[in-house]
Structure formats: structure tokens, C-alpha cells
Task: inverse folding
């Protein structure tokens, strides 16, 4: 269990990230990671804060995937976050350091935060643009459409299967988690 509060984590995120859509992405990632932690019997606070803070350096590094996550390690270590959280944040972007994700926490963070992008894109093509209307099966269907949300890496989302969660269940978990905070997400 971390000793740092969610309020402190949100404050740290907002200190470094100004784009409202990126903040919403981080909130969605937090919700999905908390749901994953519950589903897998893991530390919900630790996993949730990793979801919330995983992109804390995105504006500092101008979203450069060659270095994204490395500055986060410095920021989060200096702020006193547990090494397990810092390592998961680092590992969510393999391109920055050339290491492969092997741990469940790392795969969950990468798959969960990537899934939020596909769920958001799916939501935005619905007439009412509301998460309440989104069917998890529609998210799974969109996985197969390479041109849809083309920047969303489907292979990363499929890492859910490496942690024991089939894709349809993962999509349902993600949609349900994001629905719980739909007001904060504006969806």
C-alpha cells in the first residue's frame, strides 16, 4: 500500500500535464487499473495510482516515445512513490528503454491504458457520444478494424490475455470502469 494520497497524485499529474484530454485519459487509466487490481486480487491503490500517473512526463518529453516514461521515473522517484509503481510506469512504454514487459503489473498498466484509447474512440463514433451506449462487443469488434483508431496498438491491448483475462472480458471490465467515471471523462 502506498503512503501517498490520490489527491497528491492528481495534484502531481496536473502540475506536469495541462492538456485536459490527457488528464481524462489518465483518469480513465486509473479507473481501469483499479478494476484490474480488484479482478486480479492486487493492490488497488498502487495500481490505480500507476494508471493515474503513467503519463506524468508526456508533455515534458513532447510525447516522444523514444524517451517517454524515463522522465516519469525521475519525477515519481523524487516524489517518493514506491519502486513497484515507478517501474510499472517506466515499463508501460517499452520503446524508451528496450526492455520487455514480463510482470503482471507492467502488462496490466500497458494493456489497460491502451484500452482506454480504443474505448474512447469507440464512444466518440456513437451518435450520443456516451459510454452508457457502448457495448463491450463493439470495442472488441473495433480491435479488428486496423484503420479505426489506427494509433492504438492492438498488440499491447492483447497483453490482457497474458495476465489471464480474455479480450471480451477485458473490454467489458474497461467499459464498466470508465462508465463509473463518465461524468469526469465527459463521456
Result:
Amino acid at each position: 500500500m502506498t503512503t501517498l494520497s490520490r489527491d497528491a497524485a492528481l495534484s502531481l499529474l496536473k502540475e506536469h500535464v495541462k492538456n485536459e484530454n490527457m488528464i481524462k485519459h489518465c483518469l480513465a487509466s486509473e479507473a481501469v487499473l483499479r478494476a484490474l487490481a480488484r479482478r486480479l486480487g492486487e493492490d488497488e491503490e498502487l495500481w490505480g495510482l500507476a494508471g493515474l500517473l503513467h503519463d506524468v512526463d508526456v508533455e515534458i518529453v513532447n510525447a516522444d516515445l523514444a524517451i517517454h516514461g524515463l522522465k516519469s521515473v525521475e519525477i515519481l522517484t523524487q516524489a517518493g512513490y514506491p519502486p513497484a509503481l515507478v517501474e510499472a510506469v517506466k515499463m508501460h512504454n517499452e520503446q524508451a528503454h528496450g526492455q520487455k514487459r514480463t510482470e503482471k503489473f507492467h502488462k496490466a498498466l500497458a494493456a489497460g491504458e491502451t484500452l482506454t484509447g480504443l474505448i474512447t474512440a469507440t464512444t466518440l463514433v456513437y451518435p450520443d457520444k456516451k459510454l452508457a451506449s457502448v457495448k463491450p462487443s463493439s470495442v472488441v469488434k473495433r480491435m479488428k478494424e486496423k484503420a479505426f483508431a489506427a494509433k492504438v496498438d492492438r498488440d499491447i491491448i492483447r497483453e490482457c490475455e497474458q495476465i489471464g483475462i480474455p479480450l471480451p472480458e477485458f473490454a467489458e471490465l474497461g467499459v464498466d470502469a470508465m462508465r463509473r467515471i463518465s461524468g469526469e471523462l465527459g463521456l
User: Anything to note?
Assistant: The chain has a mean pLDDT of 96. The chain is about 60% helix and 0% strand. The domain at 6-180 is CATH 1.10.3210 (Hypothetical protein af1432).
